[in-house]
Design a protein that fits this description.
It contains 15 helices and ten strands. The chain is α/β, with parallel strands linked by helices and 456 residues long. A six-stranded mixed β-sheet has the order 2-1-3-4-6-5, sandwiched between helices.
């Protein structure tokens, strides 16, 4: 039996009254919690750095938060940002196996993540119960459970009958933990490939686990640029709750997306391998002379390498195929557009369009972090490669703060109906083939405003 007691009606009522009062006081002139939350969400892109400085010392709030697969703290940093605007969340536990990411999390968020395997916690709920006691979980306090499992958790395993075996998948393990903890909200963010045919059995298994415990789920895909992240990054989002709730939707249309220049245009100019003396995170890789020669040949501000430039392997592939291959490799970012998706390999110009718009070098750690929606003063631990891996694997804190503010409004003024399910079936065999249509606006996957339902 779970030791995490579900918040009772009286406790939720007190929390709602407290949060509503704080929201309306924070945004004078608004009459509803949702309007106040929307106003604060609109402030995020311009206020994130000031909010982060204030959030480091801000008081916690009435809602407990547990972050599994916490990484370097992207999701938790977003929820902590909310506290600078309105004290709402108290982070009580984080769990991850990455030692370098755990050091980053602790340095920025002041909480030491438990170095534990989530699969072990799912199989040994008594261990989870002991952790809850140690971290000071407050009985009857509302709880948000976050789980952004690594994409490696979605590799397919087939049993002798040829069926996909989902029992050992971290996504399903996390759903089992959610059933044990009985949080008010379950949040899962992951790569959109999660919703393709190959991994859909894993999604169905997790959905069945949560539904059996009374949870309603909404699945959607979002472009992080719609939330002020200066990057075209598509991600799947799952929200589950046993109480009526509203899905999340973006605020910005394409013409208002934040650009590379807005994010990194004011950073100090540095050369390849140089470190900014005022910011140890503003450093880049040291490139070979052949790499520098290729970079110098690429036109400034969004240019691509010519077919005669680059490693011999790329030129040979072009000759064999009779057409360009890996056109983004060694390409420059454009000042007036969002970045492409920042990955764990964005340190390397040979891995994609990861060259500075004007300077002859790859991206610095700080530039990658800012393009990923981190506050400017966020610090990263570990080796050079480990820092980029943490950033590329993180949930953008800017996006997480939007999510957190949306949840605060719903705790303050509870919706009365459940949403539709959002995405109900696999979106495609390969998500990457959908991206051009999504960027062009000719395709929309499970818009958060789709469908409403009545409470069961």
């Amino acid at each position: 039996m779970s030791v995490a007691v579900e918040a009772d009606t009286q406790s939720l009522s007190v929390t709602a009254s407290e949060l509503r009062a704080r929201l309306l006081e924070r945004v004078p002139g608004t009459e509803t919690a949702s309007a106040a939350s929307l106003n604060l969400r609109g402030m995020l892109p311009s206020e994130i750095d000031d909010w982060w400085l204030n959030a480091r010392t801000a008081n916690g709030g009435p809602i407990d938060v547990i972050d599994m697969f916490s990484g370097c703290g992207g999701m938790s940093a977003g929820f902590r940002l909310v506290n600078a605007a309105i004290p709402a969340f108290r982070q009580i536990m984080a769990i991850d196996l990455d030692a370098a990411a755990n050091r980053t999390f602790e340095a920025n968020l002041g909480l030491t993540p438990a170095n534990l395997d989530v699969h072990k916690l799912a199989d040994e709920p008594e261990l989870l119960d002991r952790l809850l006691t140690q971290c000071g979980r407050r009985q009857n306090a509302p709880l948000v459970l976050i789980g952004c499992s690594p994409c490696q958790g979605f590799s397919s395993h087939r049993n002798k009958a040829g069926e996909i075996d989902t029992r050992n998948q971290l996504f399903v393990d996390f759903a089992r933990i959610a059933v044990h903890l009985q949080p008010d909200f379950v949040i899962m963010e992951n790569v959109p490939e999660l919703l393709t045919e190959r991994y859909w059995p894993v999604v169905e298994a997790a959905k069945a686990t949560l539904r059996a415990a009374g949870y309603h789920l909404h699945l959607s895909v979002h472009n992080m640029a719609e939330f002020g992240v200066p990057q075209e990054r598509f991600r799947a989002l799952v929200i589950a709750s046993r109480r009526p709730f509203e899905p999340l939707d973006g605020l910005l249309t394409r013409e208002r997306f934040r650009t590379v220049k807005q994010a990194i245009g004011d950073l100090r100019s540095i050369s390849a391998g140089e470190v900014d003396p005022n910011d140890p995170m503003h450093l880049t890789a040291t490139h070979r002379e052949s790499t520098l020669a290729t970079i110098r040949s690429v036109p400034r501000d969004g240019g691509s390498r010519s077919l005669s430039q680059g490693p011999e392997s790329l030129r040979a592939l072009h000759a064999r195929q009779g057409k360009a291959a890996y056109e983004d490799v060694y390409g420059r970012l454009a000042w007036d557009r969002p970045s492409i998706t920042i990955t764990a390999y964005s340190r390397n110009p040979a891995s994609g369009r990861f060259v500075h718009p004007e300077q002859d070098r790859g991206l610095s750690v700080r530039e990658a972090a800012l393009l990923q929606g981190f506050p400017r003063s966020y610090q990263f631990s570990g080796s050079f490669d480990e820092r980029f891996r943490q950033i590329g694997n993180a949930v953008p804190p800017m996006f997480a703060a939007h999510l957190g503010l949306s949840l605060v409004a719903q705790f303050a003024e509870a919706p009365t109906t459940f949403p539709g399910e959002g995405i109900r079936e696999p979106v495609a065999k390969s998500f990457s083939r959908l991206i051009p249509s999504l960027k062009a606006g000719s395709l929309r996957l499970a818009n958060a405003s789709q469908g409403t339902g009545s409470p069961a």
